[in-house]
């Protein structure tokens, strides 16, 4: 009797695409990153307070806290201190997720310089429109917080590095990188990721008035949209850096040429 041979099964197992953490693990890890953020902030505040008490015998807590928020040197040190912590933990929690590389997770894909330039032109238009809307609302285009931090920066190279490099890098890698991807591939979807990250991001900027917070939220929506369209973190980083450069130039021009003579 001849042995009946079964047909060979040449079908290959379908490989699942690399997936980030789900919604709740992403929120949990993000809370750890946020806790580390505030822990570093507390350490800097304690050191700053001790230094103040050494120079001054009297400490009025409310006045001291208000001045601290608007102190440019403090903000520079704070941003430069929390940036490596935020970036480092975002990379760490991406690394321990099996089946996906850090490059895939955080969107480190180079989309080409033409796309980056295109989106940077968009952010210039956004900055012009937002300034015009604030101007016609009779609200100061240059927020008082920004002028105060500039005047009290003490060491401007550190201040510019914190505002233009450290801040945008850490915020984009966390918000439009780690947090965004974990929410995007959950049931909430891409639209939910754009909205949720923009809401959280805007609440981290309560030092501004209501108009400033609204425009930060809208800017977050734009950055999230670009993150999806480009499938890369580089355009949002470039846009964020460029926007901060524009805002910084406006502050310098206002303080040095208008505010002091008005």
What characteristics describe this protein?
262 residues, mainly alpha, 10 helices, globular
Number of domains: 1
- Largest sheet entry: none
Number of alpha- plus pi-helical segments: 10
Radius of gyration: 23 Å
- Strand count: 0
The overall pLDDT average reads 89
Helices and strands in order:
Blueprint: H1 23-55, H2 61-69, H3 72-95, H4 102-106, H5 113-136, H6 144-151, H7 156-184, H8 189-203, H9 210-230, H10 234-259
Descriptive notes:
The protein has 262 residues and is mainly alpha-helical. It has one domain. 74% of the residues lie in helices and 0% in strands. It has ten helices and no strands. Helix 3 runs parallel beside helix 7 and helix 7 packs antiparallel against helix 10. The radius of gyration is 23 Å and the shape is globular. The termini are far apart. The model has no long low-confidence stretch (mean pLDDT 89).
In a few lines, what is going on in this structure?
The chain is mainly α and 262 residues long. It has ten helices and no strands.
């Amino acid at each position: 009797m001849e042995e009946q041979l079964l047909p060979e099964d040449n079908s290959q197992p379908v490989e699942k695409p690399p997936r980030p953490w789900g919604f709740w693990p992403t929120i949990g890890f993000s809370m750890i990153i946020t806790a580390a953020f505030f822990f570093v902030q507390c350490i800097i505040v304690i050191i700053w307070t001790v230094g103040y008490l050494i120079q001054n015998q009297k400490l009025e807590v409310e006045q001291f806290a208000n001045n601290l928020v608007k102190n440019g040197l403090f903000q520079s040190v704070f941003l430069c201190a929390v940036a490596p912590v935020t970036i480092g933990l975002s990379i760490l929690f991406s690394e321990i997720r099996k089946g996906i590389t850090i490059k895939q997770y955080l969107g480190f894909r180079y989309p080409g310089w033409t796309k980056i330039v295109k989106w940077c032109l968009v952010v210039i238009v956004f900055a012009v429109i937002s300034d015009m809307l604030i101007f016609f609302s009779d609200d100061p285009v240059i927020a008082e917080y920004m002028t105060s931090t500039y005047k009290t920066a003490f060491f401007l190279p550190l201040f510019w590095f914190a505002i233009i490099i450290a801040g945008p890098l850490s915020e984009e890698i966390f918000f439009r990188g780690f947090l965004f991807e974990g929410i995007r591939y959950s049931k909430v979807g891409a639209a939910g990721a754009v909205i949720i990250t923009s809401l959280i991001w805007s609440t981290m900027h309560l030092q501004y008035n209501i108009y400033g917070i609204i425009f930060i939220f809208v800017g977050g929506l734009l950055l999230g949209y670009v993150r999806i369209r480009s499938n890369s973190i580089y355009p949002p980083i470039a846009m964020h850096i460029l926007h901060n450069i524009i805002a910084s130039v406006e502050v310098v021009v206002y303080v040095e040429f208008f505010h002091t003579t008005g």
